[in-house]
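User: Quick sanity check before I run a bigger batch. Here is a single chain. Can you write out its predicted 3D structure?
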Amino acid sequence: MEIELIEIRDFLAAHHPFDQLPDEALDQLPGKLQVRYFRRQASIPESGSIDDHLYLVRSGAVEIKNPQGELLARLGEGDLFGYRASHMEGHAEFTGSALEDSLLYLLQPLEVDALCHAHSQFAYFFEPAGGDRLRDAISHAGEDGSAQLGLMATQIGDMISRAPITMPPEASIRDTAEVMTRERVSSILITEGNHLTGIVTDRDLRRRVVAKGLDTNQRIDSIMTAAPYTLDAADYAFDAMLHMARSNIHHLPILRNGEVAGMLTATDFAQRHTTSAVYLVSSIYKQDEVSGLAAISAKLPQLLLNLAAADATANSIGHVITAVVDSITVRLLQLAEEKLGPPPVPYAWVAAGSQARSEQTAKSDQDNCMVLDDRYDPELHGDYFKTLSRFVCDGLNACGYIYCPGEMMAMTDKWRQPMGTWKKYFSEWIDQPEPMALMLTCVFFDLRCIYGERELFLEIREHLLNKTRGNQIFLAYMVGNALKNKPPLGFFRNFVLISGGEHDHTLDLKHSGIVPIVDLARVYALAAGSQSINTQDRLKEVAAGGEVSSGGAHDLRDALEFVSFLRIRHQARQIRQGTAPDNFMPPDDLSHFERSHLKDAFSVVRTMQNVLSQRYLR
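Assistant: Done. Predicted structure follows.
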């Protein structure tokens, strides 16, 4: 092969999708290309349709415009355009021009078709484009047989194998025990109509009847556990497993639309094999010292490695890792109450940021706050809650969840306030959206109650949503703030890398890739009054409600999954190498295939940012 053809072949082999071709196809391809030189400002093509050839930019720069003269793209070395390179409507009518002297390789349509027919990996690039291609790239993520990931996708209702066994509250203890024996169940639900009032287990019969010599003719509601914790049939089995491990219970009543649907037991999970994450949670609630919790949290990097190796989806990994963090937080609160005594007034411990969204990975600091009952008196109760919050935040720091650099933690006096004060905070941020207020909203508009009096949290959330739902002026400020985080994609669809400093020549996958999507989803959710916190859940809900197009929401969900997947894999690689995980990935760690799809993800985000900007900032 001539030296010039060898050089062309090497160039093709270094760029996607030609890097997907086998050696024999690459060897033949240079002889089938036309090499064309276009001077600055020259039209591409000089005549005919842009679809008459597939164009590959060897050097120089090209811009593409639609029939209305609107700029669609600026392309540089290695980029493709023309035949089958776009599936946008009216693509054949697009026109190109050279921004500078440019050298292009041209391939006939019949040759493109022949390569696609012979090589499916090559054809894949030309099938769907943009969000569709990205969606296809991640469609198989998380397809593994592990029980842990299966439970992440399994709804509780799918695990219920029999109709609920129930008794009325006026039934006798003897009659209830006979029914349990006949039905071969270790627990029974006490109901009035189809409304759940309580639960009785074998353990209750032993401890509350036999051990105390109680008359078995008494009513069963005299020994039942009233108002037991329940989950809905639409909730996920993994959440049920974690709750049972956290609460050390073996029976969990399940409701469907508020009515009794059945019972979930520890045996149901044993048949599906328990998982390492649940073992960790079980161990957490057996610890009596912070040092023991820290030892368990040290196992999280290995858990992330296991999940990444199993090809778990980034969304599933976020839920699993966050569930462990939640449990550590709850156990610290329990230990604090054991040490200090019961709280003098009710309170809610609330997670913010990524923990609230169930999107934590191996690299997280802590964002949390406390909502106190309005009966709180600083002089009478202040020392208790200050000591409690300090104990928990110090404990989280000892477990690897470092103090928030901005001090947005419950141990900071400002973020440990009565409900009325929190309502004033939110009202001020919404009514006077100054830069600092907008920064705080990005943290405190993502909240989830972890422990304590949930009603305190729910009242604040309702106040927040009532203030933001349909508030066009405030939402416009939120959009403007969200658009400050741009995906790192330049005019020529090349990556814009960090320049200088510790992270020179890397991509910040968190702040440049994930945060822009989180910000978009938050704006959509506030506009719609959505109560969802997880970003994937928010995008599903707002699409169903029409706040954003179904296609746009789907593309954003796929972009979030793909960028998050790359981030987790990057952190897993660092953990294996014995270095501290971070969010800064060198682009050289990506294959050409991954580069292409990461650009697709960034393009989706940029497109949706433009749509939101036109909607609110015109």
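The domain at 3-127 is CATH 2.60.120.10 (Jelly Rolls).

User: Great, the batch can go ahead then.
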